[in-house]
Specification:
This protein is α/β, with parallel strands linked by helices. It has 2 domains: 90 residues, Roll (Ubiquitin-like (UB roll)), CATH 3.10.20.10; 131 residues, Cytidine Deaminase, domain 2 (3-Layer(aba) Sandwich). It is built from 8 helices and 16 strands. The strands form 5 sheets. It has a 6-stranded mixed beta sheet. The chain has a 4-stranded mixed beta sheet with strand order 4-3-6-5, with helices on one face. Helix 6 runs parallel beside helix 7. It is globular and about 50 Å long. The mean pLDDT is 90.
Protein backbone atom coordinates (compact mmCIF):
# COMPACT_ATOMS: atom_id res chain seq x y z
CA UNK A 1 0.00 0.00 0.00
CA UNK A 2 1.08 3.58 -0.62
CA UNK A 3 0.31 6.87 1.07
CA UNK A 4 -3.07 8.37 0.36
CA UNK A 5 -2.79 11.45 -1.84
CA UNK A 6 -5.34 13.40 0.18
CA UNK A 7 -2.69 14.06 2.84
CA UNK A 8 -0.03 16.72 2.40
CA UNK A 9 2.21 14.37 4.39
CA UNK A 10 1.73 11.06 6.19
CA UNK A 11 3.76 8.04 7.35
CA UNK A 12 5.29 6.09 4.48
CA UNK A 13 4.22 2.61 5.55
CA UNK A 14 6.30 1.05 2.77
CA UNK A 15 9.54 2.48 4.19
CA UNK A 16 11.49 -0.61 5.27
CA UNK A 17 13.56 1.24 7.88
CA UNK A 18 10.46 1.89 10.02
CA UNK A 19 9.72 -1.76 10.80
CA UNK A 20 11.57 -5.03 11.29
CA UNK A 21 10.50 -8.68 10.91
CA UNK A 22 11.04 -10.70 14.09
CA UNK A 23 10.28 -14.39 14.54
CA UNK A 24 8.46 -15.83 17.52
CA UNK A 25 5.59 -18.12 18.47
CA UNK A 26 1.87 -17.57 19.02
CA UNK A 27 -0.34 -18.72 21.91
CA UNK A 28 -0.38 -22.26 20.49
CA UNK A 29 3.42 -22.34 20.10
CA UNK A 30 3.18 -22.06 16.32
CA UNK A 31 6.14 -20.29 14.63
CA UNK A 32 5.26 -16.79 13.38
CA UNK A 33 6.88 -13.75 11.83
CA UNK A 34 5.78 -10.39 13.20
CA UNK A 35 6.46 -6.91 11.89
CA UNK A 36 7.50 -4.56 14.71
CA UNK A 37 8.33 -0.86 14.88
CA UNK A 38 12.00 0.11 14.84
CA UNK A 39 12.92 2.63 17.53
CA UNK A 40 15.96 4.90 17.11
CA UNK A 41 17.61 7.66 19.09
CA UNK A 42 17.78 11.21 17.74
CA UNK A 43 20.01 13.81 19.39
CA UNK A 44 18.93 17.39 18.71
CA UNK A 45 21.32 20.36 18.76
CA UNK A 46 20.26 23.99 18.57
CA UNK A 47 23.26 25.80 17.13
CA UNK A 48 26.22 24.59 19.25
CA UNK A 49 24.19 23.34 22.22
CA UNK A 50 22.98 19.78 22.72
CA UNK A 51 19.34 19.95 23.79
CA UNK A 52 17.93 16.42 24.09
CA UNK A 53 18.06 12.84 22.86
CA UNK A 54 14.67 11.42 21.84
CA UNK A 55 13.53 7.91 20.99
CA UNK A 56 11.61 8.00 17.72
CA UNK A 57 10.84 6.07 14.54
CA UNK A 58 13.01 8.67 12.77
CA UNK A 59 10.92 9.03 9.62
CA UNK A 60 10.86 12.86 9.57
CA UNK A 61 13.81 14.01 11.72
CA UNK A 62 13.82 17.58 10.33
CA UNK A 63 10.20 18.19 11.29
CA UNK A 64 10.64 16.46 14.66
CA UNK A 65 13.66 18.59 15.60
CA UNK A 66 12.09 21.91 14.57
CA UNK A 67 8.74 21.07 16.17
CA UNK A 68 10.38 19.96 19.40
CA UNK A 69 12.36 23.20 19.67
CA UNK A 70 9.25 25.27 18.89
CA UNK A 71 7.15 23.51 21.51
CA UNK A 72 9.92 23.92 24.10
CA UNK A 73 9.94 27.67 23.38
CA UNK A 74 13.59 27.46 22.29
CA UNK A 75 12.80 28.25 18.66
CA UNK A 76 10.69 31.39 18.15
CA UNK A 77 8.05 31.96 15.47
CA UNK A 78 10.12 34.80 13.99
CA UNK A 79 13.43 32.92 14.06
CA UNK A 80 15.31 32.57 10.79
CA UNK A 81 16.59 29.01 10.33
CA UNK A 82 19.90 29.07 8.44
CA UNK A 83 20.26 25.30 8.08
CA UNK A 84 19.10 21.90 9.32
CA UNK A 85 21.78 19.22 9.09
CA UNK A 86 20.95 15.57 9.75
CA UNK A 87 23.58 12.84 10.04
CA UNK A 88 21.73 9.53 9.84
CA UNK A 89 24.88 7.53 10.60
CA UNK A 90 25.15 8.92 14.13
CA UNK A 91 21.48 9.98 14.54
CA UNK A 92 22.26 13.64 15.20
CA UNK A 93 20.46 16.69 13.84
CA UNK A 94 21.62 20.30 14.16
CA UNK A 95 19.24 23.25 13.73
CA UNK A 96 21.13 26.50 13.13
CA UNK A 97 19.45 29.88 13.51
CA UNK A 98 20.46 33.45 12.73
CA UNK A 99 19.74 34.34 16.35
CA UNK A 100 22.34 33.28 18.91
CA UNK A 101 20.88 30.95 21.53
CA UNK A 102 21.80 29.66 24.99
CA UNK A 103 19.31 27.60 26.98
CA UNK A 104 21.56 26.29 29.74
CA UNK A 105 19.25 27.65 32.44
CA UNK A 106 16.16 26.08 30.81
CA UNK A 107 17.83 22.69 30.50
CA UNK A 108 18.47 22.62 34.24
CA UNK A 109 14.74 22.88 34.95
CA UNK A 110 13.33 19.67 33.50
CA UNK A 111 9.98 17.94 33.96
CA UNK A 112 9.52 14.38 32.71
CA UNK A 113 5.95 14.11 31.42
CA UNK A 114 3.47 11.24 31.37
CA UNK A 115 3.85 10.77 27.61
CA UNK A 116 4.76 7.46 26.00
CA UNK A 117 8.51 7.16 25.35
CA UNK A 118 8.85 9.77 28.14
CA UNK A 119 8.36 13.33 27.01
CA UNK A 120 10.19 16.23 28.58
CA UNK A 121 9.22 19.84 29.27
CA UNK A 122 12.00 22.39 29.93
CA UNK A 123 11.99 25.78 31.63
CA UNK A 124 8.88 27.63 32.78
CA UNK A 125 6.52 26.51 30.02
CA UNK A 126 3.75 25.49 32.44
CA UNK A 127 3.67 29.06 33.79
CA UNK A 128 3.95 30.69 30.37
CA UNK A 129 1.22 28.63 28.75
CA UNK A 130 -1.42 29.82 31.22
CA UNK A 131 -0.95 33.38 29.95
CA UNK A 132 -2.07 32.40 26.43
CA UNK A 133 -5.70 32.74 25.33
CA UNK A 134 -6.84 31.13 22.08
CA UNK A 135 -9.10 33.65 20.34
CA UNK A 136 -9.99 31.72 17.17
CA UNK A 137 -13.71 31.76 16.36
CA UNK A 138 -13.54 28.53 14.34
CA UNK A 139 -16.35 26.03 15.03
CA UNK A 140 -16.66 22.29 14.56
CA UNK A 141 -19.88 20.67 13.43
CA UNK A 142 -21.28 17.95 15.68
CA UNK A 143 -21.24 15.40 12.84
CA UNK A 144 -17.62 16.11 11.96
CA UNK A 145 -16.37 14.52 15.17
CA UNK A 146 -17.66 11.10 14.09
CA UNK A 147 -16.59 11.65 10.47
CA UNK A 148 -13.04 12.58 11.49
CA UNK A 149 -12.62 9.44 13.61
CA UNK A 150 -13.96 7.24 10.81
CA UNK A 151 -11.69 8.73 8.15
CA UNK A 152 -8.59 8.33 10.32
CA UNK A 153 -9.45 4.74 11.24
CA UNK A 154 -9.67 3.86 7.55
CA UNK A 155 -6.31 5.43 6.66
CA UNK A 156 -3.40 3.02 5.99
CA UNK A 157 -1.00 3.46 8.90
CA UNK A 158 1.96 2.06 10.77
CA UNK A 159 -0.42 1.31 13.62
CA UNK A 160 -2.47 -1.04 11.44
CA UNK A 161 0.72 -2.58 10.07
CA UNK A 162 2.75 -3.08 13.24
CA UNK A 163 1.05 -1.39 16.22
CA UNK A 164 3.06 0.29 19.02
CA UNK A 165 2.61 3.87 17.74
CA UNK A 166 0.36 6.86 18.36
CA UNK A 167 -1.16 8.93 15.58
CA UNK A 168 -1.81 12.68 15.30
CA UNK A 169 -3.75 14.33 12.49
CA UNK A 170 -4.42 17.92 11.42
CA UNK A 171 -7.83 18.55 9.88
CA UNK A 172 -8.97 21.35 7.61
CA UNK A 173 -12.65 21.36 8.57
CA UNK A 174 -13.44 17.60 8.42
CA UNK A 175 -10.71 16.79 5.89
CA UNK A 176 -7.45 15.22 7.14
CA UNK A 177 -4.39 16.94 5.64
CA UNK A 178 -1.39 16.07 7.87
CA UNK A 179 -0.85 12.67 9.51
CA UNK A 180 2.11 11.73 11.73
CA UNK A 181 2.81 8.64 13.83
CA UNK A 182 5.49 7.81 16.38
CA UNK A 183 6.21 5.68 19.44
CA UNK A 184 5.37 8.68 21.61
CA UNK A 185 2.42 10.91 20.89
CA UNK A 186 4.54 13.95 21.83
CA UNK A 187 6.91 13.09 18.95
CA UNK A 188 4.01 12.90 16.51
CA UNK A 189 2.79 16.31 17.68
CA UNK A 190 6.24 17.83 17.35
CA UNK A 191 6.60 16.51 13.79
CA UNK A 192 3.31 18.19 12.91
CA UNK A 193 4.44 21.45 14.54
CA UNK A 194 7.70 21.37 12.58
CA UNK A 195 5.96 20.64 9.28
CA UNK A 196 3.42 23.43 9.75
CA UNK A 197 6.12 25.94 10.73
CA UNK A 198 8.44 25.11 7.82
CA UNK A 199 5.54 25.18 5.35
CA UNK A 200 3.82 28.32 6.74
CA UNK A 201 0.50 26.58 7.47
CA UNK A 202 -1.99 28.67 9.45
CA UNK A 203 -2.96 26.78 12.65
CA UNK A 204 -5.83 29.02 13.78
CA UNK A 205 -8.42 27.45 11.46
CA UNK A 206 -7.35 23.82 11.99
CA UNK A 207 -8.60 20.92 14.13
CA UNK A 208 -6.18 18.55 15.84
CA UNK A 209 -6.94 14.85 16.40
CA UNK A 210 -4.81 12.47 18.48
CA UNK A 211 -5.11 8.84 19.49
CA UNK A 212 -3.36 9.56 22.81
CA UNK A 213 -4.51 10.75 26.21
CA UNK A 214 -5.37 14.41 26.75
CA UNK A 215 -2.62 15.17 29.26
CA UNK A 216 -1.15 18.53 30.26
CA UNK A 217 1.69 17.95 27.78
CA UNK A 218 -0.75 17.51 24.88
CA UNK A 219 -2.63 20.66 25.82
CA UNK A 220 0.62 22.65 26.09
CA UNK A 221 1.81 21.55 22.66
CA UNK A 222 -1.57 22.22 21.05
CA UNK A 223 -1.81 25.70 22.59
CA UNK A 224 1.81 26.47 21.64
CA UNK A 225 0.94 25.56 18.05
CA UNK A 226 -2.09 27.88 18.14
CA UNK A 227 -4.67 25.22 17.23
CA UNK A 228 -8.09 25.93 18.82
CA UNK A 229 -9.70 22.44 18.85
CA UNK A 230 -8.22 19.17 20.14
CA UNK A 231 -9.98 15.80 19.81
CA UNK A 232 -9.00 12.37 21.15
CA UNK A 233 -10.56 8.94 21.28
CA UNK A 234 -8.87 8.59 24.67
CA UNK A 235 -9.56 10.25 28.02
CA UNK A 236 -8.49 13.30 30.02
CA UNK A 237 -6.30 14.24 32.96
CA UNK A 238 -7.47 16.90 35.41
CA UNK A 239 -4.43 19.10 34.82
CA UNK A 240 -4.92 18.83 31.08
CA UNK A 241 -8.54 19.97 31.41
CA UNK A 242 -7.54 22.83 33.71
CA UNK A 243 -4.95 24.11 31.24
CA UNK A 244 -7.44 23.81 28.35
CA UNK A 245 -10.02 25.86 30.25
CA UNK A 246 -7.49 28.56 31.15
CA UNK A 247 -6.29 28.89 27.56
CA UNK A 248 -9.74 28.71 25.90
CA UNK A 249 -8.90 25.48 24.06
CA UNK A 250 -11.81 23.30 22.95
CA UNK A 251 -11.13 19.83 24.40
CA UNK A 252 -13.09 16.83 23.11
CA UNK A 253 -12.30 13.38 24.49
CA UNK A 254 -13.56 9.79 24.49
CA UNK A 255 -14.64 10.30 20.89
CA UNK A 256 -15.71 6.82 19.85
CA UNK A 257 -18.52 6.18 17.41
CA UNK A 258 -21.05 8.98 17.82
CA UNK A 259 -20.26 9.60 21.49
CA UNK A 260 -17.83 12.12 22.97
CA UNK A 261 -17.27 14.43 25.95
CA UNK A 262 -16.45 18.15 25.86
CA UNK A 263 -14.74 19.44 29.02
CA UNK A 264 -13.53 22.80 27.70
CA UNK A 265 -14.53 25.27 24.99
CA UNK A 266 -18.02 23.95 24.26
CA UNK A 267 -18.88 27.22 22.50
CA UNK A 268 -17.04 25.98 19.40
CA UNK A 269 -19.33 22.95 18.98
CA UNK A 270 -21.95 23.61 16.30
CA UNK A 271 -24.78 21.14 16.85
CA UNK A 272 -27.14 22.17 14.06
Amino acid sequence: MTRQKKYLISPNIDNHILTQIITGVDQDNNPIESEVIQERSLTIFLNNQEIVTLMSIADYPRYLAVGYLLNQNMLKQNDIIKSIDYDKDINVIVVRTKRETNYEKNLKKKITTSGCAQGTIFGDIYDEIQKIKITSKITIKHDWIYEISKKINLTPSLYLKAGAVHGCVIMNKNHPIIYMEDVGRHNAVDKIAGYMFLNNINPMNKIFYTTGRLTSEMIIKTVKMGIPILISRSGFTSWGVELAQKTNLTLIGRAKGKKYLVLSGRHRIKRY
